[in-house]
Amino acid sequence: MPGTRFSYVTLGLMVGVLTLAASSHADDAMKIGSRRQLFVDRALIGSLRNASLVLHHPIKREIAITPEHPWERNGVSYMVTFKDGPTYRAWYRVDAAGLTADRKSMTAYAESDDGIHWHKPKLGLIEFEGSKENNLVWNGNIVNLAVFRDDNPSAKPNERYKAIGRNGDLFSLVSPDGLSWKPASDKPIHTARPFDSHNIAFWDPIDDQYVAYTRGVRVEGSLGSGMAATFFKSGVRWVRRSTSKDFLTWSELEPMRTGGHPREELYTNATIRYERAPDYLFMFPSRFASAREPQPGWKYGKGVNDIVLLTSRDGLRFERTFMDAFIRPGLDQDNWHERSLYMERGVLQTSPTELSIYCMQNWRLPSVHIRRYTLRLDGFVSVHAGYDGGELISKPIVFSGKRMLLNYSTSAVGSLRVELQDKEGNSIPGFALDDCPEIFGDRIEDAVRWTSSTDVSALAGKTVRIRVVLRDADLYALRFGE
User: Considering 90, 180, 245, 450, which has the largest number of Cβ atoms within 10 A of its Cβ?
Assistant: First the structure.
């Protein structure tokens, strides 16, 4: 019958639509594989009840770099550091007064066995005041070098280390060892000034390209670029991004995007890809409050600054989960003037439980130095619930691996319990909350156990949700692994 045929066709179309809808719903699940997930943004979070995200502040440690030599007498700043084989290596700007009393900015080198205690080897490369007994590696007219090791498989051995720096425009440099440098070209890679302060570049293995984050401008009502220094009349200091496949030809600079957050001045970005959780790019810009003057009469002008934390999963859109400061100027009153506090580029693991980061302080003063700060591993942000308890439910995810591993901390009476749910939010038999004994203590990585087993491999590749019930506890990170 014609009517019957029409009904079958209609039914078939409806089934097809429903199948496509279900497929689309499944495709919406966040595919995390075995990659570590943090809570620095809300991408993983479906809902929080009686729980909140908490920003953790680094602990102030010892001074790492001081201006102890004549070529450093006017300042040390703009450090880049990373672990290179067994050695922690660092490159930093030094400022010296020459015979004519003009400021001369150069690049010096330091290294460490542990990321804590640093020494400055006598390299014999650059002459300063008649001697090469120093740790200088560059004294050309390109300044504020940002060095990185190029892990691009196509990189030439004699260009294994690269850097960008400024001389009005932005230029690139290359080196076989990180010590002997030469310009990659006599032509700049970018001319859309301003580029003052520290511009950062690195090889990004996740995006399979070189990335640069530079000084820039954000104009009220637009994301304009390529403006001259007069942009301060209508905009704020900002950060721009450019990419390259060959380190020679670069894309147009594009201002980073932070959504509808309040208009603040940000610069000296110190951007990294976080190695322990490579889904995330971290940026630690200086936030400049340009109208404040807590020390009247400061001859260099108004303003105070602190350090904030931004994160991104795509390299252009940065989340400001917290508007609060990550590092405050603190009780040191010599940090309460303009441009006194800059985050240096690099996050190092310096123990099985500790990250080290570095911050320049007391700029323009004889007491200027680069200081080490520490956090627990992955300890930037946690999901926190107090004594009365709370819970997190994730968005739908797809994972790979055999065990679920948590980075957490509880009080002596606190605890966590974990439930795995199907995509509709129903507990999965064997992985319900009642099947999970209380988890308590303080561990960087600990496997969740349900009814005497940690094996979740039967759920790998399927769409699930994670429910975590917390009491007087913090959850910093999670992942699935072998």
Answer: 90
Q: Could you state, in order of their start, the residue ranges of all structural domains in the chain?
A: 29-56+382-481, 59-376
Asked if 196 and 202 count as a contact pair (C-beta separation under 8 A), the reply is no
Homologous superfamily, domain 29-56+382-481: Galactose-binding domain-like (2.60.120.260)
Do the Cβ atoms of 240 and 253 come closer than 8 Å?
A: yes
* Alpha carbon distance 458, 31 (integer Å): 16
pLDDT tens for each residue of 362-414: 999 999 999 999 999 999 999 999 999 999 999 999 999 999 999 999 999 99
Q: CA angle, 287 as apex, 283 and 288 as ends, to 5°? A: 150
Q: What is the largest CA-CA distance in the chain?
A: 103
Residue of 89, 138, 104 whose CA lies nearest to 358: 89
Q: Tell me: cis bond preceding 194? Omega within 30 of 0 counts.
A: yes
Q: Is 59-376 a domain of CATH 2.115.10.20? A: yes
For 302-425, where are the E strands, in sequence order?
Answer: 304-307, 310-312, 318-319, 341-343, 348-351, 354-361, 369-376, 381-385, 390-394, 397-399, 403-422
Neighbours of 433 (CB within 10 A): 16
Which residues in the chain show pLDDT less than 50?
1-26, 99-101, 222-233
